[in-house]
TrEMBL record:
Principal location: membrane
Transmembrane segments: 52-79, 91-114
Descriptive protein name: FtsX-like permease family protein
Organism per entry: Streptomyces iakyrus
Subcellular locations according to the entry: Cell membrane
Length: 129
């Protein structure tokens, strides 16, 4: 079981990093007007980082319910007990790792998106007639 988790977790982390990087990079045009409007780079980067934390706050309990629906029957079949044999340490490590991975990926991808040409300020704003 530990071998299976060891193989699944890096693949899942790679998928999450890839998805978040692409989603954040596609938001360059959304970040572009924030800089000329007076937002500092740190403020722009905090926005997607907090969005990632809130996403984790919703996704982790949902993932726990889905995993529980699979692990409880498996635990009953293997041990006869409905309580899966999981300790708090690995669960806390997975939770913390998910938070660090999502916030770090979105912040790094946002930093790279801010440095791109599409997010660079284009001069003073002009009034639209």
């Amino acid at each position: 079981m530990l071998l299976l988790l060891t193989m699944i977790n890096p693949f899942t982390a790679l998928s999450v990093v890839n998805t978040l990087s692409m989603a954040t990079a596609s938001r360059r045009r959304e970040f572009a007007p924030l800089r000329p409007a007076g937002a500092q780079s740190a403020q722009v980067l905090r926005m997607p980082a907090w969005e990632a934390v809130l996403t984790c706050a919703v996704a982790l309990p949902a993932a726990a319910v889905v995993c529980g629906s699979v692990l409880v029957p498996l635990s009953i079949a293997l041990t006869g007990s409905a309580v899966p044999a999981l300790t708090g340490g690995p669960l806390a490590a997975l939770t913390g790792g998910a938070l660090v991975l999502t916030a770090g990926t979105v912040t790094l991808a946002g930093l790279l998106a801010l440095r791109s040409a599409a997010a660079a300020p284009r001069g003073p704003a002009r009034a639209v007639p």
